[in-house]
């Protein structure tokens, strides 16, 4: 996909969002994701080819992808291993996301592997996908801190990226998995990693767990990031903070950039309509703000 | 109150918060505000001396102020006119807040006066309070846009401040009354107004209506603001956006600054305890995020 100069927003509703919900009907998933595509979002992490035992919420991955309207959009699936990569290839996704935690403790707890074991697995996936002409994006979970280990210096992130670039990987999502990042830290981490690895592609995957979601998006933008993950309505959540919000809300991020005259791809009103539909499907009040308040430019009668 | 170099946080729970609620028992109001004071917050907009017919929620203004623990804290009441100022003096508040909208339409709808009529009224209040050695802070409602008139240029704000400084006023809260501000605009407005009026005291009163609350706080801080209003748990709301959140949450703002190594006065854990108590008093889930997720530095067991 060519860079058109706009901020690139990647919707992760289908994966990071629906994974945190009770079962969402396949037809509803397809309908919501197709609305997001129709709104003009150009990258979609639609689902995950992971064990249905581990994540039953996404056991319909193949069917979901089959029914997406794949025009002017890059469809991404999260995969945990080579077997998942093979499923993703069968579904002809455009890209795959893989994950490794910067924190050893978090990686062990998440996938029962050391960080180095995960990196070896990612290298195997990369070989397979690369030979099939597909991009591999590495999500660096707990980039900005680990709920078990706490906050740490950017050097920890540097080390993991260094090992991965040695294997050929060059696309990384800096993920604030449990919403621990603050704007100063985002700014410092991004600047340092951009300096250290000028040839890699860096994006931000931020959560609004502690209310700093859009402040962190802004700090990342100011530090040079032009690619952000977000979920419709801000769904997603955090297993360590029951009741806390999830990912930054796609439509709130899009609205902020639009208000700041920073070009984006999606149509805001279409995104809001999709978010309100999602709220009906899920049956509870979503954390997204603009879906409740309307655009800043919406006028009221005096 | 001497400037100790910390960011100055002013809690507006008692006024902007409780005004938007159904009746809150006087004892609960006193207890919550005293907890906020005990947490170390040094300025409190505790209530309003406004007609009990207009705002029955705050008809207990005198009693609330009587029972506050007034040590190391400046107690502020909002007042609409000279009569309110006299009540405020009887209660021996430390400062008063007055309000005028930048938007003619909003001012007319809010207080049925032209902006110039409001400014004349504020000048009368200022005479009275000044002669009693009390500070008067002017809240400039709809600084960043009006729900009826839309967004406008900073020149509109400049004109209102100019007229007020001509009357002797020199303390202004730039208020994003219905949450229309974005970070670029906050940055531009603040820089311009600081340049135009180097001798006035500017603070920010921001709402999180469209999710940009903390991003706007950050933009204001970066542009040189060191004084911010906020409400416990983010209560407050917006009459034009049912279901939208209110003021930026005091504990979320405090937490962000603390995480960024910017010194603040209050104790974060005490603020969180107060916010959780407020949630019990009000009986619904408050919009504050850190009260649900805990501090970024809280560790979990692996």
What does this structure look like?
The structure is a homodimer of 302-residue chains. Chain A has a single domain, classed as TIM Barrel. Chain A contains twelve helices and eight strands. Chain A has helices at residues 13-17, 26-38, 61-66, 82-90, 104-111, 115-131, 154-166, 183-196, 213-222, 250-259, 268-282, 290-293, and strands spanning 8-11, 43-48, 74-78, 95-101, 135-141, 171-175, 201-205, 227-230. In chain A, helix 4 runs parallel beside helix 6 (115-131). In chain A, 54% of the residues are buried. The interface between A and B is large, with 54 and 54 residues.
In short:
Two copies of one chain form a homodimer. Chain A has twelve helices and eight strands.
Topology, please?
The structure is a homodimer.
Chain A: E1 8-11, H1 13-17, H2 26-38, E2 43-48, H3 61-66, E3 74-78, H4 82-90, E4 95-101, H5 104-111, H6 115-131, E5 135-141, H7 154-166, E6 171-175, H8 183-196, E7 201-205, H9 213-222, E8 227-230, H10 250-259, H11 268-282, H12 290-293
Parallel strand pairs in A: 1-2, 1-8, 2-3, 3-4, 4-5, 5-6, 6-7, 7-8
Helix pairs in contact in A: 2-11, 4-6, 8-9, 10-11
